[in-house]
Amino acid sequence: MDDLDRDLINTLQGGFPVCERPYAEVAARVGSDEASVIARIGSLLQRGLLSRFGPMYHAAQMGGALSLAAMEIPPHDFARVTDIVNDQPEVAHNYERSHRLNMWFVLATETPDAQQDTIARIERETGYPVYNMPKIREYFVELKLHV
Amino acid sequence: MNAPQDFRLLDDVDRRIIQATQAGLPLSVRPYHTIAEQLGVDAADVMQRMQRMLDLGIIRRIGAVPNHYALGYRANGMTVWDVADDRIDELGERVGQLDFVTHCYQRPRHLPDWPYNLFAMVHGKTHEEVEAKTALIADVLGPASRGNDILYSTRILKKTGLRIGS
């Protein structure tokens, strides 16, 4: 990583302008030029240092539903359940975590009803209960990973 | 906390813009014009609609999501806390303000299996760093926290962007 990589990662977490030539505006902020900024964002994505670049949509505001759900899966059955859970298109992220509840996934559905349907399907196909933990409140955080 | 959902906030053109951009923004000199060309609509209209979605909170923000893991933040700790219900909003706001907390939510308990109602995501380069930061959260919460745990991610099983259907 060089200085331009770092400046772009830090700057682009804050927000990207809506205007005719937004990359030129970002270039002015980081002391670079438009073509370099465009090429470098592509390179940051390609190198995996950025996992995404673009608009972050708010699922609930679009009428959809987002939730975090957890399951307790015995080690001998973990691979089978992982396949079933990952096969659901509504499952966006799935992590193994160090806890008795050892599988944690994010469900993104177009409606709250579809969320319940997906949970019921996972419970039926895996034979294990799902602990659904949709957010009650979200507390404001700045995006501020500084590199 | 969020306004009630209303599908009518979005018309068909908005939904096509969402579908065209949810994987990312074009890396072209005039990215909003590129989207407009793809959709066969006017670029000024695309910019106006995206600005409106930002103002309404339908778009949280436009920008980059750093890959913590690739940037060396390999210890990803989900800290969870059992916080007194009558203090959780006040304390949740304060925990969210700590500069190392990247997400902070109140979620439902599932008693007796899961007593925790406050979730704060902490990224660090090592487990020791995450634990030191967890101790700072404990200082903020004080006796209002009756128990806590740290869940480290030990494996990514699936990671895709959030998508809405067509």
Describe the structure.
The complex is a heterodimer of chains A (147) and B (166). Helices cover 39% and strands 22% of the residues of chain A. With 147 residues, chain A is α+β, with helices and mostly antiparallel strands. In chain A, helix 2 (22-30) crosses helix 3 (34-46). Chain B has 166 residues and is of the alpha+beta class. Helices cover 35% and strands 27% of the residues of chain B. Chain B has five helices and five strands; from the N terminus they run H-H-H-E-E-H-E-E-H-E. In chain B, strands 3-4-2-5 form a four-stranded antiparallel sheet, with helices on one face. The longest helix of chain B has 15 residues, at 127-141. The chains are: A alpha+beta (147), B alpha+beta (166). Chains A and B meet through helix 1, helix 2, helix 3, strand 1 and strand 2 of A and helix 2, helix 3, strand 1, helix 4 and strand 3 of B. Strand 3 (91-97) of chain A pairs antiparallel with strand 5 of chain B.
Brief synopsis:
The complex is a heterodimer of chains A (147) and B (166). With 147 residues, chain A is an alpha+beta fold.
Spell out the blueprint of helices and strands.
The complex is a heterodimer of chains A (147) and B (166).
Chain A: H1 3-12, H2 22-30, H3 34-46, E1 50-57, E2 65-71, H4 78-87, E3 91-97, E4 103-109, H5 112-126, E5 131-132, E6 137-138
Antiparallel strand pairs in A: 2-4, 2-5, 3-4
Helix pairs in contact in A: 2-3
Chain B: H1 12-21, H2 31-39, H3 43-56, E1 59-66, E2 75-83, H4 88-97, E3 101-106, E4 118-124, H5 127-141, E5 145-159
Antiparallel strand pairs in B: 2-4, 2-5, 3-4
Helix pairs in contact in B: 1-2, 2-3
